[in-house]
Amino acid sequence: MKTYSIGEVAKELNLTVYTLRYYDKEGLMPFVERTPSGTRLFKESDISALRIIECLKATAMPIKEIKSFIDWCSDGDSSLQQRYEMFMERKAIVEAQIEELQKTMEVIEHKCFYYKVALDAGTEDIHKKDKNEISLPN
Amino acid sequence: MKTYSIGEVAKELNLTVYTLRYYDKEGLMPFVERTPSGTRLFKESDISALRIIECLKATAMPIKEIKSFIDWCSDGDSSLQQRYEMFMERKAIVEAQIEELQKTMEVIEHKCFYYKVALDAGTEDIHKKDKNEISLPN
DNA sequence: ATAATCCTTATAGTTAACTCTAGGTCAAGT
DNA sequence: ACTTGACCTAGAGTTAACTATAAGGATTAT
């Protein structure tokens, strides 16, 4: 069976070897086998697992929680319910993240427009409402 | 003109007073005025500015870059081009973030389905392909 | 055979963004 | 007058996630 070195995997996943070893130290890669001398041998399935880890990271899941998931995977079928719930929770989180980004996008686009207008006018004053504020009599 | 204390602003924006003072220390709030004794007095316009800062933070913009924007604002019309370009860049970044989250969502949804099926079957083995791998003759 | 280039561990350092503590000031209520 | 609670600064501490260094072992290329 074809295996890959840590350097090859790092290149493939756009990570550094430092990062991969850090993940291993944090318990995210208990499945990776070693040569008798200690060198890690990554299988295709290990790379797939790392892709899932990267996916969970993209949902802003902390590494400690990802570790729980990895531990559950090692536990086998008894943790199926937990793993299912975890992914459902992740789904809700990503939905919320997308929604927040869409709201952010609206503000950003408004600002793009605001500055386009100001730039064309040469001054931001173009946006200053001259709403004739009542000046206090004095 | 109505003003607000740091505590009121913190509550309004769902931040802590520590965070607001930290932002001030980092130069994000040069516009906030003080009483003679040093207490910060936030105006409505200051709160609006903080909402923009929160919006930029939501695009994963580092505080140092947000500071540059605040500095440009103080510079007036001469920085209009830079501010316009900054928001256009932010727009591109948010688009990319949304796209990445949508790809992430596809994977997560697939996993939700995967675990739903496994849970119904009572075992993850339901997904194991029995693709008759050619066993080596020995 | 030997140099280059991998790999290993253990451990220390970095960075961003808070988060808190200590020690003090100030304004309002009893 | 005095206590309470919110404000202030300076500076220290925390956390997550890397990122790098040192010292050495293993593998590959000439």
From TrEMBL, chains A, B:
Residue ranges of coiled coil: 84-111
Keyword terms of this UniProt record: Coiled coil, DNA-binding
Stretches assigned to the HTH merR-type domain: 3-72
Residues spanning the signal sequence: none
GO MF, any single term: DNA-binding transcription factor activity
PANTHER family listed in its UniProt record: REDOX-CYCLING DRUG-SENSING TRANSCRIPTIONAL ACTIVATOR SOXR, TRANSCRIPTIONAL REGULATOR, MERR FAMILY
Full protein name: DNA-binding transcriptional MerR regulator
Lineage of source species: Bacteria, Bacillati, Bacillota, Bacilli, Bacillales
